[in-house]
Design a protein that fits this description.
The complex is a heterodimer of chains A (312) and B (201).
Chain A lengths: L20 E2 L2 H9 L5 E5 L2 H10 L3 E4 L4 H7 L8 H10 L4 E6 L3 H10 L3 E5 L20 E5 L2 H9 L4 E4 L9 H19 L5 H8 L3 H10 L5 E3 L7 H9 L5 E3 L1 H4 L4 H13 L4 H7 L27
Parallel strand pairs in A: 2-3, 2-9, 3-4, 4-5, 5-6, 6-7, 7-8
Chain B lengths: L5 E5 L5 H10 L3 E5 L2 H4 L4 E4 L4 H10 L3 H9 L4 E4 L1 H6 E5 L11 E6 L10 E5 L9 E5 L4 E5 L4 E5 L9 E6 L2 E4 L10 H12 L1
Parallel strand pairs in B: 1-2, 1-3, 3-4, 4-12, 5-6
Antiparallel strand pairs in B: 6-9, 7-8, 10-11, 11-12
Classes of the chains: A alpha/beta (312), B alpha/beta (201).
Amino acid sequence: MSDHTPSTHSAPSSSAAQVPETGTARVKRGMAEMLKGGVIMDVVTPEQAKIAEDAGAVAVMALERVPADIRAQGGVARMSDPDLIDGIINSVSVPVMAKARIGHFVEAQVLQSLGVDYVDESEVLTPADYTNHVDKWQFTVPFVCGATNLGEALRRITEGAAMIRSKGEAGTGDVSNATTHMRQIRDELRRLQSLPKDELFVAAKELQAPYELVREVAEAGKLPVVLFTAGGIATPADAAMMMQLGAEGVFVGSGIFKSGDPAKRAEAIVKATTFYDDPDVIAKVSRGLGEPMVGINVEDVPEPHRLAERGW
Amino acid sequence: MSHRPTVGVLALQGDVREHRRILAALGAHTVAVRTADELERIDGLVIPGGESTTMWRLARAFDLLDPLRKKIRAGLPAYGSCAGMIMLADHVEDGVDGQETIGGMDVTVRRNAFGRQLDSFEAALEFPAIGQPALHAVFIRAPWVERVGPDVEVLARVAAGPTAGRIVGVRAGRLLATAFHPELTADTRVHGYFLEIVKEA
């Protein structure tokens, strides 16, 4: 692992280094910039990874069970078997992400050792620490973390997250929570931008985030890292709506491989994400996709089983 | 052509906004390009960083690959960074099965040549065509150029480290390509160099 000075700035002023530097904030955040406008798909086998790549995924997310199955089967959900992650890395040439439990820094170390391109410190798995998230500055591999609001996003960035995704409610096929989280983050960004400078101190207190980062975000009007959406996206129209709400890209979990025709649906979601503001294209790609995942209304999920409420 | 060129950024996927931000700061009018019609209204094209296989599949699916090839062959100036470099190469190594490019540059580019994300790096890079000081170059799962044809000018090579000497900047006529991402820094000189090509065209 490398030792890097924590920085909340997107462009740390590096001295003209003659020796190549790896694992810098810019390299980590830059990786996420390259995924923008794309779809990252949950896969549990090398075969699924190949289907995702063939459909145009910009990256795949390796995990043991998709959220819908974690939800149905219960029990403790953990990092995947390294053999499975190796199998997926060897089957595709697009970036491979993998999930670690919240706060489980050793799972994260293992994933870095396996050579994954991004670690998702994810509420979809059972948290390993109910107080602390992983200190992500200590890693060369970049991290993506979930957030339901701006304060949560800023706390994760402070811990070193190089990419944020709205949480939604994974494994439901119900997009309503993703909508709520995207609107919430967008509204809070807009509010922060409108505040006079002398009110940013209190804003930082309310957001429970460092003042320097809050000021930077208020000036830029956006997060210093890429913001994707996740949780409950099951159709091309779902993906396009999230993009119109300001997401810079889309994670799709159970929505693809729990549907009737995964390859076709995956390709349609990729197309709808690129042409998110063109209803003619979205209409065209939404035809004949077969059965969507069945889905569960978030309201019917008892509160202790709501994944979005994990993390803080 | 007019003193204020219109530069399109291919907006199928990737870091479109970063390129538009730099081009706009240099005084260019920028537009996102996703259709063949939009290609007709530009003086130059930037192909951003991103996932080259995704860009290829979308360009193929939306019938954009052939119009892009025609425009490039007809002399449209183009600049590609990273995935954009792959898209402008006539030959690609380590692509996926059947991967096509727009082509136009007589080069062979090896995809993900520097390795996975853990190998992504930033380093100083001499780029004589834009002068001093050296660029601060950001390489992300970057490709390199493995072979250059006779009419291709090498603009930059990695200076130090295990990959020293690898070709990471090339120009062939009105086509420019870099394996790194100047759009992720505040340095506008590579884009400025491209806008000179556009203005001379």
